[in-house]
Design brief:
The complex is a heterodimer of chains A (about 325) and B (about 325). With about 325 residues, chain A is an alpha+beta fold. In chain A, about 55% of the residues lie in helices and about 15% in strands. By secondary structure, chain B is mainly alpha-helical. Classes of the chains: A alpha+beta (about 325), B mainly alpha (about 325).
């Protein structure tokens, strides 16, 4: 693997570890509102106080409405809140089993630390970004696993078995590919319930995205199965009396694996984007749960679009993540 | 030639039928429809809902509804929209035209940009213009279409140079023919730009890769030895040899273009198929969902047919194959 691809892989692992640890790394619960602080700008960390004294521990000032409300907020210099490590705060679940309250950093009540600003309901953007990343990034990963699993299984079956199985599966694949993919995705989404609890919505999205796009991996896997089937070592194994299942498992699947892996690096970003797009349209993960898509949804209002740059952050972080996936795919392809 | 066209047409019709059956089967799995939402409303009596269901044939079995829908497709109605209270066909026609206009202008613009850029990068391979180009296309490729569309929208809103939202200004009907055209063109700038930026990186990459292969071919050296000027060699010979995979790429790119277009239309408020589909989904308006889905399939299939025909015209090898 090339150096770039290795760096990209490390970066992706780091990003995923960070979002998995969202509960601990985020200072607040992603749904906690501060109605008095809508669209607060990213907090300014200070080291030097009013008297010119230097503090090695950074601190933030409390935000109050500016005298002219249209100007937003101003800092109240009399109330400083030092940033502390390992503070107790809102409870969160660890691995879905036990509950913890310790957050990596935060400020004492009633101070608020919005490192990336707050949204229209005064919710911490950083906390929402981290928790939303959990949903968006893992939706992509799981959907890719599903579509590649389903697609390559059907593709291998079609390529290996040939005859009518091949004909049926490939005609069906053609149908799925005759629809522009976003339209297909939305059409399938259209016929499923609109309002559901977040966990169910997440699973529903993953399965819709994964199942709808089975045709492309299936075509790839079929091509490989077709060529491997005719190779000498497979014929030899067959003449020794190897069964179909054994042949697929032992000879065809390993040959498809490297292509599937490369394909995965290309599909994951597309599926992350699919989740983001659906949630942006209001057809995906619903508030108050955070996803990068429904966070970007706020930009559909013109005043948010032009006034609060920090609302763009979920879209901006997608760029390096996607670049890393593309670099990884290039590296995997070069190796294959 | 004619047999090729006929074969492609028959294939497309079969695919369209298949897609419609698939979509209809999906609606069977759907929990709830337009009338279920209506039933929740206290102002509407259960009898009214039942009468409406009977009137629109919702209480019929799926196979019968499908046949009736096919019948209405034949008359150009494409079913009945419950939310709009009118047949889907007329609603769809304008929307499909708007999407088609947006997509074709964007395709044209993107190719007109991609060919010189790709050729330029291939000729300058390894030197700084190529490296800069590769870095730019990689960044653009990783930037989600959604973000590109939102960025352009915010630029338009901030600068005030371009109108935003919709396809025409409010006083459109009173304008003269020239002003009308100008108004439309101004409204189309932002969505077209978003689409072009969305498909450009992939196109440039393919043109560049194809040109690099073509430039390295032995016939290029032969041409140079014959003293053919460099410019003619690149554009007259290499580009022609590289054209074949590019034309098939045109067919492939139409699918992603339509998907992007739906996104851009919703973000920018362009009255195409995209916003109509989204509206229909949120209202659970069954036939109105089917309409844009079928229309987009039709556009995609038509685009693929067009690409096949272009390929036929551009590549003598394919002509021989088709004749055989």
């Amino acid at each position: 693997m090339t150096g770039t691809a290795r760096v990209a892989a490390l970066f992706l692992v780091a990003v995923h570890v960070i979002v998995v640890l969202a509960g601990f790394l985020a200072p607040y619960d992603p749904a906690t509102q501060n109605r008095r602080l809508p669209f607060a700008p990213p907090a300014r960390l200070h080291f030097v106080d009013e008297q010119g004294g230097f503090h090695s521990r950074p601190f933030v000032y409390a935000l109050v409405d500016a005298p002219d409300r249209a100007l937003g907020y101003q800092e109240e210099k009399s109330r400083a809140f030092p940033v502390r490590l390992f503070v107790e705060g809102a409870p969160y679940r660890v691995a879905g089993v036990f509950t913890a309250r310790t957050h990596l950093f935060g400020v004492d009540e009633p101070g608020r630390l919005f490192l990336l600003g707050s949204d229209g309901l005064g919710r911490d953007q950083l906390s929402r970004l981290l928790h939303g990343g959990q949903i968006s990034l893992f939706a992509g990963l799981l959907a890719a696993a599903l579509s590649l699993g389903l697609g390559s299984a059907l593709g291998m079956l079609a390529g290996f078995h040939g005859r009518w199985v091949d004909a049926v599966i490939m005609r069906l694949a053609e149908l799925f590919m005759a629809l522009p993919w976003l339209y297909l995705l939305l059409a399938v989404r259209a016929f499923l319930p609109l309002h559901m609890p977040p966990a169910q919505t997440f699973l529903l999205l993953v399965s819709v995205i994964g199942v709808v796009d089975w045709a492309r991996p299936a075509r790839l896997a079929r091509g490989i199965a077709l060529s491997v089937r005719e190779r000498d070592f497979v014929r030899a194994a067959r003449s020794f009396g190897a069964g179909s299942l054994y042949l697929i498992r032992r000879h065809i699947a390993p040959e498809t694996a490297s292509v599937v892996l490369t394909q995965a690096a290309l599909l994951v970003p597309q599926y992350v984007l699919a989740e983001v797009t659906l949630s942006f349209f209001g057809l995906g993960v619903a508030e108050p749960a955070a996803s990068w898509g429904n966070m970007l949804g706020a930009l559909q209002q013109y005043h948010v679009l032009v006034s609060y740059w920090w609302m763009w952050i979920p879209g901006v972080v997608l760029v390096p993540v996607f670049m890393a996936y593309h670099a990884l795919a290039d590296g995997l392809r070069a190796r294959a | 030639m004619i047999s090729l066209v006929l074969r492609r047409l028959a294939h497309s019709v079969l695919l369209l039928l298949g897609v419609s059956i698939l979509s209809f089967a999906l609606t069977e799995l759907a929990p709830g429809n337009f009338f279920d939402e209506m039933r929740l409303s206290p102002q509407i009596s259960p009898e009214t809902v039942a009468a409406l269901r009977a009137r629109y044939g919702i209480d019929r079995p799926a196979s019968e509804r499908y046949l009736r829908w096919l019948e209405s497709v034949a008359t150009g109605e494409l079913g009945y929209s419950f939310a709009y209270g009118q047949p889907v066909g007329p609603l769809l026609r304008d929307r499909a035209l708007h999407t088609l206009a947006l997509a074709s202008v964007a395709t044209l613009a993107a190719w007109l940009l991609a060919i010189p850029l790709g050729v330029g990068f291939a000729v300058a391979r390894g030197r700084w213009p190529d490296r800069l180009g590769s870095a730019l296309t990689a960044t653009l490729l990783a930037t989600p279409e959604l973000v590109i569309a939102l960025l352009l929208l915010s630029l338009a809103v901030r600068s005030g140079w371009l109108p935003t939202g919709g396809m025409t200004s409010s006083g459109y009907a009173d304008l003269g023919a020239w002003e009308k055209a100008k108004d439309l063109a101004l409204h189309a700038v932002a969505p077209v730009a978003a689409l072009v930026l969305g498909i450009l990186p992939a196109l440039v990459r393919h043109v560049r890769a194809g040109m690099i292969d073509a430039l390295a071919a032995p016939f290029m050296r032969a041409g140079r030895a014959h003293g053919i000027p460099r410019r003619r060699l690149v554009f007259g010979y290499a580009l022609r040899a590289a054209a074949n995979p590019l034309v098939s790429l045109l067919g492939f790119s139409i699918g992603s273009l339509l998907s992007m277009s739906m996104l851009v239309e919703v973000v920018m408020g362009w009255p195409g198929l995209g916003p109509l589909l989204l509206e229909a989904i949120l209202a659970r308006d069954l036939y109105l969902v089917l309409g844009p889905v079928m229309a987009s399939t039709l556009l995609l299939l038509a685009g693929n047919c067009l690409a096949d025909l272009l390929l036929y015209a551009a590549d003598p090898r394919i002509r021989r194959e088709a004749a055989a």
